[in-house]
Write a structure and sequence with these properties.
Elements lengths: L1 E9 L2 E9 L4 E5 L6 H9 L6 E6 L2 E5 L4 E2 L7 E4 L11 H12 L8 H7 L15 H14 L4 E5 L7 H17 L4 E5 L2 H7 L2 E6 L2 E7 H4 L3 H4 L8 E12 L4 E6 L2 E6 L8 E7 L3 E4 L10 E12 L5 E6 L4 E6 L1 H7 L6 E6 L9 E2 L1
Helix pairs in contact: 2-4, 4-5
Amino acid sequence: MLRVSVLKRRGEFTLAATFSAPTPGVIALFGRSGSGKTTLIEMLAGLLPPDEGEVQLDDTVLTDTRRGVAVPPERRRIGYLFQDARLFPHLTVTGNLRYGEKRAGAAVHYVRFEEVVELLGLAALLARRPHELSGGERQRVALGRALLCQPQLLLLDEPLASLDVARREEVLPYLETLRDWLSIPMVYVSHQFEEVLQLATYLVLLEAGQVRAAGPVDEMSLRAELRSNLAPDLVGSVLDGRVTAVDADGGTADLSIGSGKLQVSLRGAAVGARVRVQLLARDVILATQPIQGLSVRNALLGTVAEIAADEFASVLVKVDVGGPIVLARITAGARQALRLAPGDAVWALVKAVSTRGRAFRL
């Protein structure tokens, strides 16, 4: 468990953040620019002392102002990946990685050089120097160096912010691999919800220096606090499913979602694999009776759990589909025409492409 309760004043800005998040896993610090994400992560690293508070990782107290505990950054066994790779320009990739090994000192080496090279696909880059690498390659090397420090916690401060879309797509799968293969807790700072959706297991929402909400990603996707921080087109529900069938030729897979089934575009997934999808509220159509003769392949039978006015001048309907909740944004006129009320049975119709083109493996 990562337990954080800190207060820091920086000029007119005050950060007062308190949360507890399970470890291992990927804890996302999400919020708009200026919300306090980098200030908070610097306090976790020990680079910035809080005015008051404490930071504890599992059984290790890293900071406690009341007891005068302030473990120096170099003794915290924390790996830090910045927006820019910060590699040593005079060293080869091998030299930069070996530097991380030296930083580990006498710590138990649970991650080996050869494992990192294979894990991050660095074998072909070992003899190169940083100026010979692409932005995505530099970030992978920086990530490898951080891992070879044998960290108990890995901090990633918007590591993809300086990369273009193609380079982001190059690095993200490696971050997924780290999450799935290594039991190193990670704190991931981002203001891009797609990155959070793909990587995070737990979400801490920061706004104006305050923790507005915190919880598992699927639960947080339903929170009004998160919706107000997203563009209207990104509002939706995050669902975790399990692959029950695969159509390799068609490039699709069937997922078990609550009491229903969802077909998504997905290649390379095995039956039994866990997959995360996002269903955008704008792309969910509600029907009060079974629909036939449509090209829509997905129809989840559920019960209206809640109806509320949306922040974007429409109506947001929560549909319980056997445990998971699907969000649908409809007009007030559509609600009246359907005579929707909590407890009503409805079908949530979803196009396969509403998973934003892919499903995210967990």
